[in-house]
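Write out the 3D structure for:
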Amino acid sequence: MPKKKKQKKHRFKSFAASFNRFMKRLFAAAIVVILVLSVLVYLNNSGYISLPAWFPTFKAPPYEPDGLAHVHFIDVGQGDCSLLVADDGTTMLIDCGEAEYSPRVLRYIDRLGITRLDYVLATHPHSDHIGGFRYIISSNIEIGTFILPRIPDEYIPATAAYEKMLEALEKKGCNVKEAESETVEFGGGELCFTVPDYSGENLNNYSVIVRYSFGERAFLFSGDCESDVETEIIESGAELSADVYKAGHHGSSTSSCSLWLKKISPMCCVIQCGAGNSYGHPHDEAVRRMRDYSDIILRTDLNGNIVFSTDGRSIDYETSK
């Protein structure tokens, strides 16, 4: 009998030890799985990888208008991408960066709870501005009106980025229109489009200029428009004054001439460029010109995503870095 009692006690201890080892291993495995999933979601949100549609993610609640106008400058490396959200929730996406950043842009929009883009503008057909549109168009985001720059037939590019964007637009059946100089309502504010009177090989100079005004405040977006066209637009009498200016051509010396900056008279300039880019953007001479007219210069390579909010009187901003 004593032997049997001792044996039962030994068996109980063995079972308890085995159970403890199993739970420790299960806990360690759970930690590893959580870490791996966290890394995958982070890389997906950062645009380095694209997770499949079935991958579990947290769906943001639908966007709720707060009566403020918000302008997001999304960090897409050496490229442009801006998201406008009006006081009533009306939305507009201006450019989207290269194709590799499309997961980042889509996740950014999703995290805001936005399911519809009322307007989408491709300022001009360079891949650092339109490369990711084929993926954004093909996503489940609803698109109201897609606006393309006005380019003469002989200068329409035959690049893969441009052709795949057009194919995606046709496949989705989007409402596509050619940009024209006009003013349209945008929530409680206005969007004023200015189309350059240009014909030539320099695709930068077809950039559609957009001025978004809300109350007493305004934002100006000029794509990659260069100084010769900037001067022509000034002479046309277009309204250009703005509190926040999205610097032309990533802060290149060929854009943001002194006369242009004087006309805009911005409180803040935002330069969208990639860290250590091969173009040397922003150029020192362009930054010096901006500093003559602006107290604040923000850069996506240094500040990450930049978000402005305004009630039509005051303006606040925050950065992700």
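The radius of gyration is 25 Å.
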